[in-house]
Amino acid sequence: xxxxxQSQPEMSVQEAExxxxxxxxxxxxxxxYLFWYKQPPSRQMILVxxxxxxxxQNATENRFSVNFQKxxxxxxxxxxxxxxxxxAMYFCASLGADAGGTSYGKLTxxxxxxxTVHP
Amino acid sequence: EAGVAxxxxxxxxxKRQSVAFWCNPISGHATLYWYQQILGQGPKLLIxxxxxxxxxxxxxxxxxxxxxxxxxxxxxLKIQPAKLEDSAVYLCASSLEPSGQxxxxxxxxxxxxx
Lengths: 119, 114
Known about the structure:
heterodimer, A: mainly beta, Immunoglobulin-like, six-stranded mixed beta sheet, four-stranded antiparallel beta sheet, 12 strands, 0% helix, B: mainly beta, seven-stranded mixed beta sheet, 11 strands
């Protein structure tokens, strides 16, 4: 079983600044994937970034990076140089995987964090 | 590449009425998912199809919810009869592989039950 907790219901940041969204998780799986999804006000969910648990190096996608602390079961998302288009609900999610990295099961989502970027 | 299509975008019904949602996944995607997203919560998987077979429907309230994907392409989700607590956004998603890693979501159908 997996649980994902996002303790920040809402966050705000000024344009061009950096913001970090928090996520903690609990899982009984030996291997797993962690994700951050973005859901803009139009409601279409988009995958932002993905991390496989056995990889030590933190994933990075342009202005988006994660801080994966496996022992602490923490998976935070850092958005650098925030843009107005980053305004959205952000969901952290987890998914189990086997030792070979093949994922299985169902995505478990956190409650979400509403991020507002101010001009 | 066209995205996941859903219709209608919005639906308002009275409790005890029936409603159906339609989803057309990305072409070639064998795996299709229906999620329920209640306001203020993360999406919850209702059902997962691999082609036209059900992979996981453990969280589908089968007394009132049903879903089908007869030809392994588009899918319908039905609620009959609807309850107030069914008010939510219903998201459809698809992926190439059945691994559960969802990359492509549709815009969702917002259902309001009065």
